[in-house]
Amino acid sequence: MLAREVHVTGYGLVAPMALNAQALFTRLCEEQSCIRAHPLFVELGFANTAAGYLDSQQWQAIYAALEQPCGGQPRQAALAQYVAEQALQHAQFDRQSLAKPRSGLFIGANKYCASAQELDVVSQYFDAHGRVDLDAYLDHPSSQREPFAWRVDQQTQHLADYLGVGQHIATHADACAAGTMAIGSAYRAIADGHLDIALCGATELMANELPYYMFSSLGALCAKGDWPADTQSRPFMRDRCGFVLSEGAAMLVLESREHAERRQAVSLGRVLGYANLCEAEKMTSSSRDGSKYALCMQAALADAGLTPGEIDQVNLHGTSTAVNDSCEALALEQVFADHLAQLQLTANKSAVGHSLAGSGAIEAVLSLQSIAHGVQLPTLNYHADGAQYPHLNLHAQVQTQTVNTVLSNSFGFGGINSAIVLGRA
After folding, report:
1. Is 176 a catalytic residue?
2. Number of structural domains in the chain
3. What is the pLDDT of residues 320-356, one digit of tens each?
4. Annotated catalytic residue: which of 113, 176, 296, 327?
5. Annotation marks residue 222 as catalytic
6. CATH of the domain at 299
7. Is 354 a catalytic residue?
């Protein structure tokens, strides 16, 4: 059976300093960063206070706009509901549209990270040996609303209940590749004829103290706290020294061509191909020659039935860590070879930061907007004279060009690599 065409008919997005996709796209076109000093990190006295974070005004707007309150749920669930409502409205669906057979829900989300205040509650239940007495903790009346009561798929469960999805429900907890993998899995299910429609994407809230401690201990965060916050994410520059924590969410509505045509939906683009490869190299880095990343990109192109010369733009994973950027640059040389000189590249994390699971979904939406508007988004803080790979076509200013196809990369800790090909409708 031939694979069915999969179309994007709607999307929603929230990112630092942007409550929708158009606001973020405009901000990036104006070469404005979403990264700033995080008040929480300042209060805690962290050596580096830079982050992309959703501020109190954004949260007020999110809760005020929800069609139905989600009391008793963590903030991740509220964010997921808000972005899902955006995506469905954009696709001209009502909330009950997914409550039918052959509908699916695919959400990327890695973990619920408790705050220091939430952990203080748990500390009240230490026994004489400094261990948590879980029986005493769980007997506490409020324990069901404390962090250890939340599931990794809490937001997926909430959305499934809220939207009435019952056919296919999946949570991807695949590190930095989770968002792209959720979209890719939805694409596969529709292309293979198992589903007609799916809501897919990711949500992640990790701009708080525990992720800071975790990634700082790994040496993954930018170590230059004296640099201005909006200059710290600088992919492919020689002086790069780590990524900037961020948060956000994005979701897409995918439909088979037949389903979209029956309801006369407007197609915003197509998912043309997808690949997911898991390597066994190292927990925190890939093969230093870029070969594993190259295999993933080649597999995505093969799935799309495209040659390297038919790709107009690559939305890079581009975390601004030393090893990741080098591996990705070497992989580009292996995959695109002679076409690399014409290939346009962009690294959105330079402006948005790294929202882990959320990043692949956010970058997919930005890629679709680049196709629609015919632009190459800028890579902030990039200067060819200080770049490690100056032959790569990265630009610090927005570029106008026709874009028909975009390859978007997501490479996660644990060796989880994914790539998706998006194209014009």
Report:
1. yes
2. 1
3. 999 999 999 999 999 999 999 999 999 999 999 999 9
4. 176
5. no
6. 3.40.47.10
7. yes
